[in-house]
Amino acid sequence: AQSVSQHNHHVILSEAASLELGCNYSYGGTVNLFWYVQYPGQHLQLLLKYFSGDPLVKGIKGFEAEFIKSKFSFNLRKPSVQWSDTAEYFCAVNPYSSASKIIFGSGTRLSIRP
Amino acid sequence: NAGVTQTPKFQVLKTGQSMTLQCAQDMNHEYMSWYRQDPGMGLRLIHYSVGAGITDQGEVPNGYNVSRSTTEDFPLRLLSAAPSQTSVYFCASRGREGSEQYFGPGTRLTVT
Fold it and tell me: Which region holds residue B104: left if phi is over 0, alpha if psi is between -120 and 50, else beta?
């Protein structure tokens, strides 16, 4: 079945550590890709998006993601995390083959130790 | 603009009761969707709409109905609530294919 996979369910890091969260999808063809963040008690907010062009996209709060088409991946990175990055992170895919749908991964909970 | 609004914020139902979760957006967006969020399962698409009068099923549509009589409103109806429908429900809207999706604040539903 077509899906979006986030293999890291819970990641625990210390402040200033580097972060990489994995996202893989199984849709063929062209896709639009998103990362959303949900801070505790809040609703989802867009971190960054990829539609076309440079596969390395930069988002808010120092986050970036790289689209690797051959690996069907869109991993999220941040060089140095802060305690305020504690949140749940969701990868999402909008496949051109089902353009009206946006499908989400199961999420990765990120906990930052101060 | 208020963006995407949802009511109520919290609701407790007994098994078998019905209710409607309200969702409205004031951004003139064509696309609207309902998701449920459960621990460890992310957001799962329940139903979605690509315009007034047009709706379709998502990943987990059973037990839910939707309608889209206007561009602004997209209510979600639970026909006969079950404990398995205990969840947080998010409504979302976006302007066109591939554009950013905006989320409402969510409705926390408990079915006893």
Answer: beta
Within 13 Å, how many C-alpha atoms sit on residue B41's CB side? 11
pLDDT tens track for B63-73: 999 999 999 99
Residue B36 · residue B50 · CB < 8 Å: no
Residue B33 sits at the chain A interface (C-beta within 8 Å): yes
Tokens 């109806």 belong to: B77
Is A96 strand, coil or helix?
helix
Are A104 and B35 inside 8 Å of each other by CB? yes
Q: Are B32 and B50 in contact (CB under 8 A)?
A: no
According to DSSP, residue B73 is labeled: B
Give B85-101 as a DSSP string.
Answer: G-EEEEEEEESSTTSPP
Q: Which of A46, A49, A35 is nearest to A6 (CA)?
A: A35
Closest Cβ opposite residue B48 in set A32, A49, A101:
A101
Q: Residue B12 has what pLDDT?
A: 97
